[in-house]
Amino acid sequence: MNDSTAAGLRPFPIGLWVPPPAHAVSIESYKDIRDAGFTFVIGFRELEHGEEAVIHALDCSLENGLTYIVSDPLVKNLDADQAPAMEPLLSRFSSHPAYMGHLFYDEPSADQFDRLAALARTYDTLVPDGLAYVNLLPDYASAKQLGTETYAEHVERFLDTFQPKILSYDYYPLRMDGSVKATYYANLWTIHKACRSRRVPFWLFIQAITFNGTYREPNEAEIRWQVNVSLAFGAKGIQYFTYWTPEPANGETYGEALIRKDGSKTLTYRNVQTVNREAASIGPVLQSLESVGLLVSGEPLAGVEEVCDSFGPVAALEGDPAIAGCFSSGGRPHSLFVVNREYTLPAESVIVFADNRRVTIRLEPGEGKLVPLSQ
Predict the structure, then answer these.
(1) Is the pLDDT of residue 154 over 90?
(2) Which terms in the Gene Ontology molecular function aspect does this entry carry (predicted)?
């Protein structure tokens, strides 16, 4: 048990895409998931092997203190007027103590929102404590997928139509040429702003694999950077793409993920395990607070429309390039979460207080540190 959990805070949600395939599902393989710091599993193709394969995955989740989101194509593909047919499909699994919810759609286009919202309304009456899980597209989706709207309008339309308990989205920033995709911060800001105004928590995916010859395999600092930047922007949960190494499909190709196809662990498993331990310590604290904005030092963050000039007793953030998430409690400034914007170089960030005090924080590449503010 980490210190945050011991203090009575809720565990920080850490999930994964592509769990062990049905033939590799066991108490032992799910123990590896738990030991890497994950708290929930998003089902993938287990149901292709029958209902018992899903029950087995739920049982292995329960044995390891994990929860599990069922992936059922019959549920995903229902038309809006077929919502009443959902009940027997859900009841097969929803009473299991490890059940977390159902995957309704990964990366829906805008023309799917009304159908999914109708299904979710029925789902909520049948399983009020369950999660109707949808994962949204990033801002580099096509205009057709976004519905010829701006990305902000796409996100707002989903929030207003589907009314999710949690908004999840994916964005993979790390390019093979060593760069970061240009709209990474802009996408985070769009999600932060829309979710904050509606008081909906958001989760996002962390890139953990090379794929399609375009996106690189991240090292430990790059994983840490993705997680900590997400936390600074107010993310209330993280998920990884991917856990198990996927088979090539639909023209997409993949390198090795946390777990190879033979079930052995890669270096990325160890790196994610290390970063997840850090997230499990700080995440519950930030999850209990309200994210109200950002302080930034260095060049402006591209696409971030608003940053704070000051926050409570803090007059400015100076020094090397950094991001400080501003967090409040009960309407009062509570903490800064200061993150090094670089994942290759250490940084010194300087918090300047209104009384002219200056506090210097040293940050390793991608590192974040929580700084409580005097109340």
Answers:
(1) yes
(2) beta-galactosidase activity
